[in-house]
User: Which sequence fits this backbone?
C-alpha cells in the first residue's frame, strides 16, 4: 500500500467514483448532507494551487447534485473525503456548525510517528481491526437494527444507521462508548461520543493507502484481505 499520486486521484474521481453508490448509501436520508475533503494534510501530496489549503478540512455544503461533489473531488484531488454524520434541519443549521491499535510489533501511533511511520500499519493490525469490527457489530446488533461495516482503507468503521441513534445526546453516546470500552472494545471516545463530526465517505478513495472505502457484509469481513482483495483496489492499483 502507498499514497496515491495526484494523477491517480484525478483518474479515480473522474472515471471510477460512482455517485449512484453514494445515493444508495444515503437511502432514506431527507436532511442536508455535508461533505468534506482534506487535500494533502498527511501525504503532503497536493495541487500546487491549493498549497495554502492542503492542511485544512474543506466543507462542501454548496451543491445541487452528487455530480457537483464529483466535480469538487476532481478539482481538489483530495487524499480523503468525508461526510458529516450529524443531521441538520436545514442548510443554515448545517453551515453553523477511525480507532488506532497498539501493534505488539510496531508499537503505538505516537511511537510510529516519532519514527516517521505514523501512517504505516501491518497485517497484524488489520487482523486486530477486523476482529474488533466483527465483535463490535455483533455486540451492537443487540441494540440496533441497521448496522453497516465499512473497510476504510486503513481499518474498519461500524456505522449505526438507526434513525433514533442520530438524535442521541453526546452524553448518551459517550456512555455507550465507555461501556463498550469496558467490555474490551477499542473505542475512540472523541469519535463515538460525537466530538468528531466527520467519517470517511464509503466508495471514496483513501489516498493515503490507495484503497477504496467499501461497505462489507459480515461474512465478507471475516475472510477479507485488505491488501490483495480486488473489491477495494482502484483501477490504477490493478494494472
Assistant:
Amino acid at each position: 500500500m502507498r499514497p496515491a499520486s495526484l494523477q491517480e486521484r484525478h483518474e479515480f474521481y473522474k472515471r471510477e467514483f460512482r455517485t449512484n453508490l453514494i445515493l444508495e448509501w444515503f437511502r432514506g436520508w431527507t436532511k442536508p448532507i455535508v461533505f468534506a475533503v482534506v487535500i494533502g494534510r498527511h501525504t503532503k501530496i497536493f495541487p500546487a494551487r491549493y498549497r495554502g489549503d492542503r492542511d485544512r478540512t474543506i466543507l462542501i455544503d454548496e451543491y445541487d447534485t452528487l455530480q457537483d461533489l464529483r466535480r469538487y473531488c476532481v478539482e481538489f484531488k483530495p487524499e480523503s473525503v468525508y461526510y458529516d454524520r450529524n443531521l441538520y434541519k436545514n442548510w443554515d443549521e448545517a453551515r453553523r456548525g477511525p480507532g488506532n491499535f497498539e501493534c505488539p510489533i510496531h508499537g503505538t501511533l505516537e511511537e510510529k510517528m516519532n519514527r516517521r511511520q505514523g501512517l504505516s500499519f501491518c497485517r497484524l493490525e488489520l487482523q486486530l481491526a477486523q476482529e474488533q469490527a466483527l465483535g463490535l457489530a455483533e455486540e451492537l446488533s443487540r441494540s440496533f437494527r441497521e448496522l453497516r461495516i465499512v473497510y476504510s482503507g486503513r481499518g474498519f468503521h461500524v456505522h449505526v444507521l438507526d434513525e433514533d441513534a442520530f438524535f442521541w445526546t453526546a452524553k448518551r453516546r459517550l456512555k455507550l462508548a465507555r461501556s463498550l470500552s469496558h467490555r474490551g472494545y477499542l473505542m475512540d471516545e472523541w469519535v463515538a461520543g460525537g466530538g468528531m463530526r466527520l467519517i470517511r465517505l464509503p466508495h471514496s478513495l483513501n489516498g493515503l493507502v490507495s484503497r477504496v472505502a467499501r461497505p462489507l457484509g459480515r461474512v465478507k469481513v471475516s475472510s477479507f484481505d485488505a491488501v490483495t482483495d480486488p473489491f477495494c483496489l482502484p483501477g490504477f492499483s490493478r494494472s
Notes: The radius of gyration is 18 Å. The domain at 6-238 is CATH 3.90.920.10 (DNA primase, PRIM domain). Residues 93-106 have pLDDT under 50 and may be disordered. The chain has one domain: 6-238.
